[in-house]
Amino acid sequence: xxxxxxxxxxxxxxxxxxxxxxxxxxxxxxxxxxxxxxxxxxxxxxxxxxxxxxxxxxxxxxxxxxxxxxxxxxxxxxxxxxxxxxxxxxxxxxxxxxxxxxxxxxxxxxxxxxxxxxxxxxxxxxxxxxxxxxxxxxxxxxxxxxxxxxxxxxxxxxxxxxxxxxxxxxxxxxxxxxxxxxxxxxxxxxxxxxxxxxxxxxxxxxxxxxxxxxxxxxxxxxxxxxxxxxxxxxxxxxxxxxxxxxxxxxxxxxxxxxxxxxxxxxxxxxxxxxxxxxxxxxxxxxxxxxxxxxxxxxxxxxxxxxxxxxxxxxxxxxxxxxxxxxxxxxxxxxxxxxxxxxxxxxxxxxxxxxxxxxxxxxxxxxxxxxxxxxxxxxxxxxxxxxxxxxxxxxxxxxxxxxxxxxxxxxxxxxxxxxxxxxxxxxxxxxxxxxxxxxxxxxxxxxxxxxxxxxxxxxxxxxxxxxxxxxxxxxxxxxxxxxxxxxxxxxxxxxxxxxxxxxxxxxxxxx
Length: 510
Known about the structure:
By secondary structure, this protein is mainly beta.
């Protein structure tokens, strides 16, 4: 009898367990394969979390004729009754179906749930949103392009606690047309995007005026609100985490320019169509400004100003200042001649009230030394040629520019020209080794020279060491640590006589 009782109890427990998970509903209505239409979802309800067909309990609807959006919380007495059987809302699942047609456009879709949810635009073949796990109420948003009819499927399951599921779709206002056209006549065209990396194009604006390209834009948000909106020619952008690209073809006279750009947050500026950024402050920051000064030849330049904002105050500014040159220079060039000499050539026009040129040389494109002064020819509006040969032996790139000074002391600078050079060999003077590990360097001068001088510079142009000889021939060792310890790194060593300059980059190692 005891064995019979135990067996009967086990069978009863098994049956109860199976009934708790199957819960077959004899009055469940609806076909779970049918899609809703006209913005109204058909939602098919199941006991358990697996959407098992044997657990189907009936259907209900979500959304209304005016909108497919819904936000449903299954509360009350912890039961819910569809067109079928009542279920307990602590452990169930739902599959929502809707066939919907959309005009061509960009749409934002947000799905939320407590617990798991997933969403498909192709009848459940792929899940563009998939958050199929236990969690408190969360939402996921995607941006998609839709055009035509789609079979939407939204699945949801609940595993205890609050049961909530939501769906929202809205067409995203998008700008249209080219985003690569430059403004002209001092008027910038600005392309505005939602997102800090030019993600969603909203439309265009203009900045500057026919009289000046200068502008100061705060996007109508002086209070720094993250919910403010700013209108473009097509759509409004929320002034929180947005970005802009401003483009302008600027016709410049020859001269020296200082460009000043400011922003809160990141900004960067280019005069070559965005290929290089001469100002680059691409980081979160309160309003700050940066400048770039250069000489520009007469011509038209594709200026680009990019900006992003990451919350708080919004502001981007632009201006420039111009100083005309005391003379017009053209055909400015540097070529390498036999003997490793640099031949510098240029021509002038409109040289009126002009005094002289100072030729300047650099090995790092930042620190320039005066190497020669060329007196100007008499005032002339016609073309006048100039040239100068620099006997400068160097292993690496050398940079030259012209400083131009008129009789009143007004100065301007040419653009920088670059020349790759190589150290002379054979019978010429040498500096070695390149890698210095004992604090000593050797100069080797085959032929006798008078008034020789050795100099050592750091990469910031600071002179660290100098040694003079009334005459020099043969090899001489020089201690680089005579004036104290030198850190490991790169330095410039120069050997100068009354005819030539030999320069070489050396590396001190430890």
